[in-house]
Specification:
It is a single chain. The N and C termini lie far apart (about 85 Å). By secondary structure, this protein is of the alpha/beta class. The chain is globular and about 95 Å long. Helix 2 runs parallel beside helix 3, helix 4 (about 165-180) packs parallel to helix 6 (about 225-235) and helix 8 (about 285-305) packs across helix 11.
């Protein structure tokens, strides 16, 4: 029966016409060659599947049966006499992931030279099915010959900063596979959390998987080895390879918090609650470090059969190595000229160990610093210059920088991703290296770093941008206006399917929602505005500190908030929650909504200066839109209370984040005036500048036992004029970040 069905399908191909004749065919990624024909095949409960008898073919048949049942409600016949769909291994189909798909009124056949190709043919067939349930389903006649342009089409999920449950990961594997993304890069360890059970080192998960947040709550989680195997197997069945990443020698504070003897200082750091680059890294001068890492990798390699292991290697400050006697001794022993050479020594040691186990090392492009072995695969995130270095060094590369999904939706749009050409430089005049070394470009990856991504908002960052990424990597070379218009047309047809899968996808080119405040005209509260990315998005909120639900009070575009307190807002759409709660602390005071002027205008890259008098407190994240900032300048702010006003206290908050060059002021002074010209100094404070401190908030308070009466209040904060020798680049490029000025 298989041979006769094949003959019928191929013989009917003469009836096929141009693709544009069939508007209902909207496949992403678009196949390399596709022609639509006349008529359709009617799939119903009498349809059966012919396939090879090996184990993988049986898995694919079972997968296809389940997919058809879920999407159409049709249960295919399991009778050996029932036919209609045929899967066939055909060595004439060239390419490891290539396939042919033929649909005629007589039946459906998928041919490939490997089971990978058969599976991708099945995924394409799924996109030809109608979304409606019924007793039968019409599959449009079509002839497809297809293969990917790039072998490596990856998505990376960072589970270190935010933890994602297994159910979320499996859902994403289903979606990635549907769009033929074949690599899941699982970023399992970070400064902020170690997420994989290692039996030999239990403290990695009993200590390193958890952190104490600023509010005292305990946050974290980890995956057991059984769960890791479960994910790997689930991915394998869907044609996806899982590549683990174990960060080293930097981004390893969670590991060092668990086993501080592996650090240069031998002192246990806390698991960080903030983001950034931390100085505590693996001690390269201690042989125990390599013993530990090799033991960890031994367990990792038993869990992940992937030929690749990612070891990070990025953002590794060398401060601790410079001050470490054993690291310096190793550097001299090996004849290395600097600490960059130590990094290269470290990477090559780990690479050699992985190679002895049959594994290929992948690392971020910093592993080129000091020299990298050409057999390492380099993941490029810092741009064309790093790509050129790697290509000229003989390395194979993966392009990641243009596809960072944590970028705001309006800064990295669907169109931006679609039109990025990874085979060429962004500067055409410097394109020769890319052209000469085209074969070394394995493909690309779209990473989702999780500083600002969580299980509720991650999908809005991933989709629909991952569909543009999938098309880009599968098709390649299709980046002009006409091609994008065609992709856009096909993209619209995908939204109904994403809705069926309950995917909380985002808009194509602007944020899901932006919240902003204005002070009410009568200064008796606030108006919260929501600029929505979807017309049907609703904002649910609470004022009592509890988490909003779909049953909480809601607003669409704006809400009047009359009382100070803790406001929490969560966007919902189609019954799906789109984010963690956005928290606002609202504080009423005499400066609320009053005019404020500055001697030195705040930086336009952060919030405007009037956020200092809007009564909305900033969080520890200086990107939250609540902080005004000055770069190499002083804060000199004057508030006009508009009439003589009696008060007892003045306060202002500053942020300290040394790793981001955000320091506390050298001196903070409060003044008052009745006429705006003659000033009385009330108070001066010189905050302690602890550059070893993690990011924290510093409030400067003045309180008078006697009432003060004035119309104008002036706050002056002077930037540091000097910095310790250990602080990189000294007292230049220093930022001051100021929060609410409260007059009470």
């Amino acid at each position: 029966m298989l041979k006769s069905l094949l003959a019928c399908c191929l013989g009917a191909s003469v009836l096929l016409t141009s693709f544009c004749a069939s508007a209902e065919i909207s496949i992403i990624p678009e196949p390399q060659h596709i022609e639509a024909g006349h008529g359709s095949y009617q799939l119903d409960a009498n349809t059966g599947i012919d396939a090879p008898g090996d184990a993988r073919a049986r898995e694919i048949v079972s997968f296809l049966r389940d997919a058809i049942r879920d999407q159409t409600s049709i249960r295919l016949s399991e009778s050996v006499h029932a036919h209609g769909i045929a899967l066939a291994i055909d060595p004439s189909v060239k390419g490891d992931e290539a396939y042919r798909l033929s649909v005629t009124p007589r039946g459906v056949i998928i041919q490939a030279s490997t089971d990978k190709g058969l599976f991708w043919g099945v995924q394409t067939l799924r996109q030809l099915l109608p979304l409606e349930h019924g007793a039968s389903a019409a599959i449009p006649a079509v002839q497809i010959e297809d293969a990917p342009a790039f072998a490596y089409r990856g998505f990376m999920l960072d589970v270190g900063r935010h933890f994602y449950p297994i159910s979320f990961i499996k859902k994403q594997l289903d979606l990635l596979s549907y769009y033929k993304i074949n690599i899941f890069h699982w970023h399992l360890t970070e400064d902020q959390g170690w997420r994989l059970q290692i039996n030999r080192y239990p403290k990695l998960t009993s200590v390193g998987a958890w952190r104490t947040e600023a509010d005292g709550s305990r946050y974290g989680g980890f995956y057991t080895q059984a769960e890791a195997r479960e994910v790997v197997e689930y991915a394998r069945q869907r044609n996806i390879t899982v590549i683990p990443e174990i960060e080293m020698p930097g981004h390893s504070v969670a590991a060092l918090a668990s086993y501080p003897e592996l650090s240069c200082t031998k002192q246990p750091p806390p698991v960080p609650t903030t983001w950034g680059v931390f100085k505590d890294i693996d001690c390269v001068g201690d042989k125990a470090t390599f013993t530990f890492l090799q033991n960890v990798l031994d367990e990792v390699m038993t869990l992940f059969p992937s030929p690749y292991v990612h070891i990070g290697g990025d953002e590794t400050p060398k401060d601790r190595w410079k001050d470490c006697a054993s690291c310096q001794a190793l550097m001299h022993e090996q004849g290395l000229k600097d600490e960059e050479g130590l990094q290269s020594y470290f990477i090559k040691h780990i690479q050699s160990y992985l190679a002895s186990k049959g594994k290929t090392l992948i690392g971020w492009d910093e592993i080129l610093e000091g020299g990298a072995d050409k057999n390492a695969i380099i993941e490029i995130w810092r741009g064309d210059d790093e790509a050129r270095k790697a290509l000229e060094n003989g390395n194979r590369i993966i392009i990641a920088g243009p596809f960072y999904l944590d970028a705001p939706l309006d800064k990295l749009t669907v169109q931006d991703i679609y039109r990025t050409d990874i085979t060429h430089s962004t500067s055409p005049e410097d394109d020769s290296t890319f052209i000469a070394h085209r074969a070394q470009i394995l493909g690309a990856e779209a990473p989702l770093w999780s500083e600002r991504a969580n299980p509720f908002n991650a999908e809005s960052k991933m989709y629909p941008r991952l569909l543009a990424f999938a098309e880009n990597l599968w098709r390649s070379g299709m980046h002009d206006d006409a091609a994008y218009a065609d992709f856009q047309h096909r993209l619209q047809a995908q939204y109904s399917w994403l809705d069926m899968q309950e995917v909380a996808y985002g808009p194509e080119n602007h944020p899901v929602v932006d919240y902003s405040f204005t002070v009410n005209v009568h200064r008796d509260g606030w108006q919260l505005q929501a600029k929505r990315g979807f017309d049907n998005l609703k904002n649910h909120y609470t004022m009592d500190g509890t988490e909003p639900t779909a049953q909480s009070p809601l607003f669409v575009d704006e809400a009047d908030i009359r009382q100070p307190g803790t406001l929490k807002v969560v966007p919902f759409r189609n019954g799906l929650r789109y984010d963690n709660a956005t928290n606002f602390t609202l504080t009423n005071n005499r400066a609320l909504g009053k005019p404020i002027t500055f001697a030195d205008t705040p930086s336009p890259h952060y919030a405007p200066g009037d956020v200092l008098v809007d009564g909305v407190m900033g969080s520890a994240d200086f990107h939250d839109g609540r902080w005004a900032a000055w770069n190499d300048g002083d804060v000199d702010a004057t508030i006009d209370l508009q009439q003589d006003t009696t008060f007892h206290a003045i306060s202002i908050r500053f942020l300290l984040a040394p790793d981001s060059r955000v320091l506390l002021p050298k001196r903070v002074t409060f003044f008052t005036s009745s006429d705006g010209s003659h000033w009385v100094q009330l108070y001066t404070n010189m905050p302690e500048q602890d550059l070893s401190s993690p990011a924290r908030l510093q409030q400067i308070d003045f309180r008078s036992m006697k009432p003060i009466k004035a119309r104008y209040v002036r706050v002056k904060a002077e930037r540091p004029s000097s910095a310790p020798a250990t602080f990189p680049d000294g007292a230049k490029n220093i930022w001051l970040f100021a929060d609410e000025i409260l007059i009470q």
